[in-house]
Structures are given as C-alpha cells and as structure tokens.
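Q: Convert this sequence to structure tokens.
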Amino acid sequence: MEVLAMFVKNPEYFLTIVKERSISRAAEHLYLSQPYLSQYLAKLESNLGVVLLDRSHTPLRLTPAGELFYAYLERQDYLDRQLVSDLRDLQNKKRPMLHIGVSPWRGSTLLPDVLPRFTKEYPDVQVVLHEAPVPDLADLAAGSITDFCIMHIPGDLQDLTYELVMREHVFLIGSRLHPLVRDSQSSYEDPQPFPDLRLLEHERIIMLPPDWRLSKLLRNTFSVHNVEPQNILITTNNTTAINLVAENMGFAFLQESGISRTPYLDRLACFTIGDPPLTCPMAVVYKKNGFLSPAARTFIDLTKEYYSRFDRKDWDV
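A:
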C-alpha cells in the first residue's frame, strides 16, 4: 500500500535533490537523466508558483518557500508511512503502541501519577518505555524510535522540535545535620534563597556528568558567582545523589519535581539559587514534522497537567 502527497507527483525527486544539494547527483541517485530532473523541478515550481531552490549558490540552497515545502513533504512522507503501519496493525489486530523516552529518574517520579490516568483513557494502547540517560534521549526522538521524549531541551534541534512543559526550578539540597544549614528553616515546601554559593566551594558537591544539560547550567552558574568547587562527586543517578545528601555526604542540585517523592524530605534543607530562582527548561521533544497520535497528545497533556503543580510563577516575579 502506498500513499502519496495529494498534489505532488514523485515527491521523492525533490527530497533527493535537497538531500544531495545537487540536481546532477540527485539524478544519478534516482537513475534519471539530469535534463529530465531539471524539467521536473521547473514544472514543480511553476505549478506551485514559487521558487524552491536558489540556483545561484553551489551547492543548491533552499529558498524560504523551499524550506516550507520541504518540511511539508517530510511530514507528509512520515504521515504516509505511519498511516500504512497503523492500518496494517489494525488489520492484524495488533494493539497500538506508544513509545515514550524518559530518564529512569524522571520516569520513577512522573509515571506513577500519569500512567494510571492515561491507561483509563486508552486501555488498548500498549505503552513502551525507553529509559535512557538524558544525553541519549534526543537520539531516540531523532531516530523515530520514540514518539516523544520527556527531557530537558537538547542543544541540537536540527531534526527535532519541542513543546515547553515548564521551566523547572533547581533546588540546592543539603542534610539538616550539616553545619552550613543546620539552623536554617528552609524546606521543600518553603524554600529560601541560599545566601552565597561560595560557601560550598570546599564542600563535596554531588553532580551529574559534565555533558548533561543541568550540569552545564550549574557550571555556568558557578562561573557567574565566581565559585570553583574543589570536591565534585559525579553520578548519573539522581536517587544516588539524594540518598548521599540525606546521609550528610555532601550537597546536590536537583529539579524540584524529582525531590518531591523522596522519603527523606524531613532530613533535607532545600534552597533556591539566585534571583530570580534558577530554572532549567523541561520539554516534550519529538522529531521535527513528526506525527503525534491522539494517544500521544493525551499523554503529553497529562504530563503538562502533572507538572503544572510545580509551576510557582510568583517566585519569578
């Protein structure tokens, strides 16, 4: 079964020209003559009434109209293949599947609240979790392995797009037994600003790997405040960080939403960082021009609703 774009004949011809950035190389790839492919492109532009490729540049460059048209064809190609796959699954009586990418820690804090509500609305949809370290999630979305990923906004958005869920507050947490915070009343429910990050310079700081988005944000914050931590312990597991802090083995910087489920809240002093408080953007990330099924859209909406409880806008005024 093959579904083609409604008014475009042989859309793969144009997609190949863009990929190769050359009509001659595209013609070789498609086993067509260059004059024939040039005529195809000229007729396509004439039918659309716009110029799609800037021929004054070598290699060829898309015009603004060409970028729009290319995005349409990519999306249409994906939708065509998705439709064929979904119809085949219905014919074979397969359960529809929803592939979600999430870090193990975020999955453990988010899914117990969201998944039961989603299952009530879509009992026949089989949810497949792809748990991976945060830096690997973008590759899962770009490769269409997942329908979407819940993560910090990746640095490379060439093949991806996103919907912002919230700007998640980052808390500094420390054990109430530590002399620096022993007398503080700052808590998860009522966090106060930490007075001076330079106080932590010689304390053990438990951090995520340097290439993770939150770690990069924190290192930039340290630079702004002229802080050079002397004792950093790296972990890829936020639960490990919380457990170590609860045992008075150092300080950690973690997202507010993940701290809420720890059983050690009464043992932790929680602080905001800076004015306005430090935040890290958290989003739903998926392939550019990709298709989100009604089930995927519902899960995303439930996720946004869940995180809205942590959106303390009054702090940022």
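The longest helix spans residues 64-91.
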